Amino acid sequence: MPARRASCMTPPLQNSADVAIVGAGIVGASVAYWLKRLDPSVPVTLIERDRTFAQASSALSASSIRQQFSHPLNIRMSQFGLAFLREMGVAVEEKGYLYLGAVGPLRVLNDTQRAHGADVVLLNPEEISARFPWLSVAGVGLGSLGLSGEGWFDGPALHARVLKEARSLGARLIDGEAVGFERDTGGRVRAVLLDDGSRIECGHAVNAAGPWARPLAATAGIVLPVHARRRTVFVLSCPEKLPGCPLVIDPSGFWFRPEGRFFIAGTTPTPDEDDLPLEPNHAEFDEALWSRMAHRVPAFCALRVERAWAGYYEMNLFDANAVIGAHPSAPNLWFANGFSGHGMQQAPAAGRGIAELILRGRFETLDLSAFGFRRLVENRPMAESMIIG
Ligand SMILES: Cc1cc2nc3c(=O)[nH]c(=O)nc-3n(C[C@H](O)[C@H](O)[C@H](O)COP(=O)(O)OP(=O)(O)OC[C@H]3O[C@@H](n4cnc5c(N)ncnc54)[C@H](O)[C@@H]3O)c2cc1C
User: Fold this and answer.
1) Rounded distance, CA 62 to CA 58, Å?
2) pTM of the complete model
């Protein structure tokens, strides 16, 4: 086994009980998959309280992937995610994202994205109209369109595939709810405690509890600013076809994209409260979406709501970026949380990163240290301007 970094000071895995991962959504499944792929001898246990994943974000996502971020690391993580989707044989409908916005900011973003290999092009209003004649360019300075490597995919299929691969490589999936951690006087986790009174001894524990990561972290006395924020997704029908429709991000904050013969759309609710029940907010369509959508696409005047669902964004209220790494007070308690609306696409890279930290004591594929806890402790938010509410 390669040398470990002194700061990690983890015991050799051969002598430890195992790696216990709380949560078997896409993030937990990905950590388990990469651990087993990188070192098949490592005993890995996934602890999941609901195998139906009925409320898991991984089952309720819009499952889209983009290269259009402002932070180079977010671009890289999504590029890794795209390659992983291809490797797993999960098809991506590469219809692109179209960000509509002001000239200055989109030009700056375009420079960064192109410098990091994103296949994006800027379109002026005339070019947007020529390509998408069904779209109104009122108030739009520029559009930024992904030409390849962006689109949407079957998220539950990806999740099922990664979980299946992890298990076929030997990861164990057990039913149970983690209610805390047993730690030694140095802060190291010795076991994950379950609600039935049992304990899973481990050399490492991973918090992959998605929107419920904050209460789990709190059981270890760790403040994690990840909040469960409900998002309603509307499934809509429109009598008119919109040829070549990408995933459109309106400057006012809503988004829509095709989904089979329908469209799906969503927006950031105001107020945006914690832990609301996972019932769709049906009123949101009339109150916050319909008129804005019809303003942007006149054919959307005739939109009809077919159905709606709701899922939790795991919003990191500190800076809307993921938290990936161990907390300074607990060197073998690993976090992969707070993906703030882009966790399906980032789970492959995050899973690999956590697996590398556990097995090798350092990041080897992508240096994700900028996502670590240190920035929270030092109050240095990581700037990402392209967050989709
Ligand atoms: C409406 C919506 C749209 C989205 N759109 C996109 C998108 O287009 N692209 C994108 O990349 N991402 C998107 N996301 C975000 C993405 O879905 C999430 O970031 C990702 O699914 C998070 O995965 P996870 O495994 O961390 O969490 P989850 O999938 O929620 O899994 C966490 C699991 O942990 C389990 N658990 C929690 N606590 C415990 C405990 N104490 N003990 C045992 N088990 C526990 C839960 O039961 C759950 O199964 C969207 C999310 C939503 C809600």
Assistant:
1) 9
2) 0.95
Q: How far is CA 327 from CA 50, 109, 222, in A?
A: 26, 32, 8
pLDDT tens-place string over residues 71-127: 999 999 999 999 999 999 999 999 999 999 999 999 999 999 999 999 999 999 999
Q: Which residues line ligand 1 (CB under 6 A)?
A: 22-28, 47-50, 53, 56-58, 60-64, 177-178, 208-212, 216, 231, 233, 311-314, 339, 341-345
User: What's the rounded Cα separation, in Å, for the pair 63 and 49?
Assistant: 23
Can you state the angle between helices 72-87 and 103-115, rounded to 10 degrees? 60
DSSP state for residue 152 in the 8-state scheme: E
- Cα Dmax for the chain: 66
Residues 6+ positions from 203 with CB-CB distance below 8 Å: 10, 11, 13, 15, 16, 17, 18, 19, 332
pLDDT digits (tens, 9 = 90+) for 269-311: 999 999 999 999 999 999 999 999 999 999 999 999 999 999 9
